[in-house]
Amino acid sequence: MSRSSRNDRQVMLPTAVPAVKILHRVPEAGITTRQYIGLDRNERLSPFPDWFMDNIRQSVQSNLLNWYPVQDELELELAEDVGLSLDQIILTPSSDSAFKALYQAYIGPGDSAVMLDPSYAMFPVYAQMFLGNPVLIPFDQNLEIDTELLLESIIPGVRLVMIANPNQPTGTILGDDIILEMIDRAARVGALVVVDEAYYPFSRATALPWVKEYPNLVVTRTLSKGAGLAGLRIGFVAGHPEVIENLFKVRTVNDMNSMSILCAREILKHPELIDDYVDQVDAGREVLAKDVAELGLTPLPSHANFMLIRVAHKRPPRELVEELKTKGYLVKGLDAPCVSDCIRVTLGPPEIMSQFSASLREVMESGT
Q1: Which of 256, 264, 266 is nearest to 70 (CA)?
Q2: How far is CA 338 from each of CA 38, 153, 285, rounded to the nearest angstrom?
Q3: What is the layout of strands, in order, in the sheet containing 89-92?
Q4: How confident is the model at residue 21 (pLDDT cuts 50, 70, 90)?
Q5: What is the pLDDT of residues 322-355, one digit of tens each?
Q6: Could you give all domains of the chain from N- to C-terminal order, each with its CATH number?
Q7: b/e code 103-123 from CB counts within 10 Å (16+ = b)
Q8: Which of 37, 158, 194, 264 is most buried, taking the most CB atoms under 10 A from its CB?
Q9: SS3 of residue 231 by DSSP
Q10: Is residue 350 reached through a cis peptide bond, with omega within 30 degrees of 0 on the bond before it?
């Protein structure tokens, strides 16, 4: 059969299952974004020190690439670092894969997952993907949550309560009392409370020690933010051994890679790298807050490595995003009603924030 006749044949492709067919996903950022200074993805903005990179390079041997990855050494080190037993820890290729695994293990048709709105964008997507119902608890214009509504939403039929703490994009945090009450209510209806602590290094607020005491509490962490390993996609889940076992059942084979494991182990040896970068971000936060306030904009408090800046009273946020792009900066415009008057800016060292502030000032003054 000739190539042309093969191409002329009519091919009927199977349709995706309904839960997938209705989904819409936005493509990830491509290579064209690398020409800009990215203040839109909450990545580490300063490079690792040369000595750290040299340690990594010297550790990369052929067998790292030739052999399948070994995870148990890192899992043991993480368990010791956070004070849990080995059967309470599982590595994941970033927090996102942990969320998907939790939905796959615990959400079936008609089950509900409670979440804040806005929050991590994939929380409602995974609920729909597994034929569940996302229950959205909205922030008001002051970026506050109706905690009574949140608690009252944890009813029979709810299987997961997904809480990013600190939350993204709001930068807000829920206090210990409300988290403990959520855990209690969830326990009564047979639900897990999942606390995502992606931004823990910046907030230092954590529920992780409670994992020992509350079987229905799950905590996820990533090394993408404070540790600066966003390109390696590595994190972990802490929870009851039964939950960890269920997550293991739905994981793909060899889902971690050896380079991620090597770099994670290396950075665990040097926690000062994380602490130093957090200090840089805190110093940069002060610089940016002062500078934007002088421009008549409103910097909002944040417990993470980003800042929301209310700008709509001066300039349309989307217009500002595009004009900053002409200056070489990518910042985030937001759609949710409570933050639609803001731009979100990734925080970094003071010198980077000062340079960004200067460009922001130029853009603001050119539009007046």
Answers
A1: 256
A2: 24, 21, 22
A3: 89-92, 235-238, 217-222, 192-196, 158-164, 112-117, 133-138
A4: confident
A5: 999 999 999 999 999 999 999 999 999 999 999 9
A6: 26-47+272-366 (3.90.1150.10), 68-269 (3.40.640.10)
A7: bbbbbeeebbbbbbbbbbebb
A8: 194
A9: helix
A10: no
Q: What are the structure tokens assigned to 49, written together?
A: 């020190």
Contact 312, 276 (CB under 8 A): no
Query: What does the buried/exposed string (b/e) look like for 275-314 if buried means 16 or more CB atoms within 10 Å of the residue's CB?
Result: eebbebbebbbebbbebbeebebbbbebbbbbbbbbbbee
Question: Tell me, what amino acid is at 161?
Answer: V
30 bridge partner residues? none
Alpha-carbon span 282 to 8, nearest angstrom: 62
pTM of the model: 0.94
Do the strands 158-164 and 112-117 form a parallel or antiparallel pair, or are they unpaired? parallel
Contacts of 342 (CB under 8 A, 6+ apart): 300, 308, 309, 310, 311, 312, 317, 334
Residue type (1 letter), 44: R
Alpha helices in 223-342 (DSSP H): 241-250, 258-268, 271-294, 317-326
